[in-house]
Amino acid sequence: MIETRQLSKRYGEFPAVDAITFKVEPGQVLGFLGPNGAGKSTTMKMIAGFLNPTAGSASVCGHDVVDDALAAKRLTGYLPEGAPSYGEMTPRQFLHFVAEARGLRGGQRAQRVDEVIERLHLHGVLEQPIETLSKGFKRRVGLAQTLVHDPAVLILDEPTDGLDPNQKFEVRNLINTMAKDKTIIVSTHILEEVQAVCTRAVIIARGKILADATPAELEARSRYHQAVSLTTTNLAGAKDVLSRVADVAAVEYDKITQRLTAIPKPGRLIFGPISELLKAQGIPVSELQLESGRMDEVFRTITHGDLGEDLAEPRETFA
Amino acid sequence: MSNILTVFKRELASYFATPVAYVFIVIFLLLAGAFTFYIGGFYERGQADLLPFFNFHPWLYLFLVPAVAMRLWSEERKSGTIELLLTLPMTMWQAVVGKFLAAWAFIGIALALTFPIWLTVNYLGSPDNGVIFASYLGSFLMAGAFLAIGSCISACTRNQVVAFILTVVVCFLFLLAGFPLVLNFFSSWAPQGLVDAVSGLSFLSHFSAIAKGVIDLRDLVYFGLTIAFWLYASAVVIDLKKAD
Asked: Which residue on chain A is closest to B94 by alpha carbon?
């Protein structure tokens, strides 16, 4: 379990993290979202025990990260941003070093190191210096290091940053398999990741929590929640149909994807009426989709306030 | 204690995983030999002692020890591994001491590898081996003091070149603290007590006292305190500059 109470970090006058309070229970994967410089990494560094808070407190499984730092650190696996490791060591040496520092000895250490090697598929690179490895392998070595003592709490700062899609998929699978009995915090600015691994998302910007909800709840805040998108060859006819449905608030056309999107009035369902009317009018539709909401739009709206719309890609809007 | 040992082992192994160790040891041995035989006139003196050998150690250390010390913390900061190291379940003190001891042991290994000169002088004559032992001890302690200064300065910056140059300068000042170059700077304005205190800080005078074969507790305490002070300062600096 991770708990923060009014956790704050100031650099001079600048509040990097400003009175953040949240609680993560075992079995939860908390996604930490926010623009660069929002305070994600600083918060994680404080929970991991690297930086001391200027005010407020944080605890890991009931151990305060300042007053009872060693106990808190023992229960925590931390992947710093960029997954740093000692470049001249081989993954095997590095993992043994971390395991030893984590208090694992003899046969138990060898067994745990073998387990994480297995889990992260590091067999092929065990005897090469880490600095000669590819980015994907370096990241996996970093992840292996966080797991070697089977911690109750995992703090992963951008674990998939810079990985290719296959590697991202693997890392997300790994997080999902560990999620059952551990408390996990993952920071990211890849929004699809939140849906893929997180049971809960916290959006922070300028050091403050702006939203704390499940990914589905966040999507529901989108103006595209329950919106209907379609692709058609008869653009004019389809626009006409969409604007005739009573509960449609606006119709947008995206020139790049060539899709029409009808946005419903809040709380209304428009999928049924639209599909019936399109059929009745005989308008050819090659694709018709009900949207659950757009994370990127929610993210922009929350982190920029009203600016969100200005930053969106230019679109034609019809009343 | 076991945490210090864990850090110590990793750190010491890392010297030998890169060419740093071999370059350092070879250069140290070559220079030590060259100074002893060509400048120190080891044979010409016709005396069975190692004075020409030990006399040059302070000047060798002045450039070689900062080269070892510069990477101690600035590399950790630059590569980000400091975040990893300090979130392991160990105290800052254990990390600082473990890394320092590894670097010190490494210099100790280089120093121990000068043993052929000890064999040579014992073959050629019958030197006072007690004095030679004391000189080795003094030399090793002085290296530790240089290294502790380097550890602190290395913690101040993530740039190794800056760390190297600043360490050389600070070590130079400590080396010559008892000499006019440094004392004149103080004597014009500072009270005599301070001037005496500064002159008492000289590495050179404490080292040559031990190298004469007199292992005085005061000299040992001096080096011990110097090392402890600079290591403490290292821990403070690391703590202050962690967020940068």
From this structure: A101
Domain spans in chain A, listed from the N-terminal domain onward: 2-220, 228-318
- The pLDDT tens digits for A8-19 are 999 888 899 999
| Mutation for A interface: B16, B83, B85, most A CBs within 10 A | B83
- What is the dotted CATH code of the domain comprising A2-220? 3.40.50.300
Nearest to A74 among B17, B83, B89 (CB): B89
The CATH code of domain A228-318 reads 3.30.70.100
Token pair of B4 as six digits: 């210090």
pLDDT tier, A108 (very low <50, low <70, confident <90, very high otherwise): very high
Round to whole Å and give the CA distance between B42 and B40: 6
The answer for residues whose C-beta is within 8 angstroms of residue A98's C-beta and 6 or more apart is: A145, A148, B84, B88
Position A309 scores a pLDDT of: 41
Complex prediction ipTM:
0.90
Report in angstroms the alpha-carbon separations of A84 from A80, A138, B103, B138, B186: 7, 8, 22, 39, 46
pLDDT (0 to 100) of residue B210:
87
Q: Where are the alpha helices (DSSP H) in chain A?
A: 40-48, 69-74, 91-101, 106-119, 135-147, 165-178, 191-197, 215-220, 235-244, 271-281, 295-304, 307-311
In this structure, the number of other CB atoms found within 10 A of the CB of residue A150 comes to 14
Minimal-distance CA residue of chain B relative to A65: B87
From chain A, the residues in CB contact with B89 under 8 A are 70, 73-74, 101-103
B34-65: pLDDT as tens digits: 888 888 777 777 777 788 888 889 999 999 99
